[in-house]
Amino acid sequence: MVAQLNRIDPTGLVLSEKIxxxxxxxxxxxxxxxxxxxxxxxxxxxxGVVGIGYGKAREVPSAIEKAVKNARKHLIRIPTFGxxxxxxxxxxxxxxxxxxxxARPGTGLIAGASVRQVLExxxxxxxxxxxxxxxxxxxxxxKATLRALLDLRSREDVARLRGVELLPDPMLxxxxxxxxxxxxxxxxxxxxxxxxEQEAAAHAEQARAKRxxxxxxxxxxxxxxxxxxxxxxxxxxxxxxPAEGGEAKQDS
Length: 252
Hints:
Layout lengths: L15 E14 L2 E13 L4 E9 L2 H13 L3 E2 L11 E5 L2 E7 L6 E2 L2 H10 L4 E5 L6 H13 L4 H8 L7 H45 L38
Parallel strand pairs: 7-8
Antiparallel strand pairs: 1-2, 2-3, 3-4, 5-6, 6-8
């Protein structure tokens, strides 16, 4: 459990967060029931750094924000071996028991929802896992997984304790080569995607400028004056009043 004391400063790290689960709690008071929420999150940089956090609040977003802040305070580094673990390890918390078994490249991440989120944040892609405890409570399973990961030792640590020299590992070399090729392909795709987006934006700008140039220029016309209404003719005082139901008849 030495790794628990080696906290990592999150400054400068690009961390991704995953929500393990959200729980609702109801407290019965005199006026009715008062609800509150709790959330557990896992954060990591995908390169061996991971942390779990727990937060409670009256609203769901506030609970998630507290959980993320709590996880950033408990970041630790987990030793890895390429895309898997250095050796098999077991861990438990409460009645939950978790087994983590390394696997060859291409196996994939064989794990349940709770264990998968922890391993994805670490950057593990090839591993076999099994929950063998009496419970599948996400809280206990995540904590059991973290306890198992804290018991890991890297190849360098074991070699230093035994006083031996490490030989080049062909499997690790092939994994590193595969990871380098994946990184190169992803970088090439991202660069090509940015170039395509820039070309599309340039073509759209040229088309807009061409439409603006082809549009005929209209001369600004002065606003038309609104004609004044004609004055009504005033009735003569000597004229007889109009007959009922029609106009007045003219004298012959």
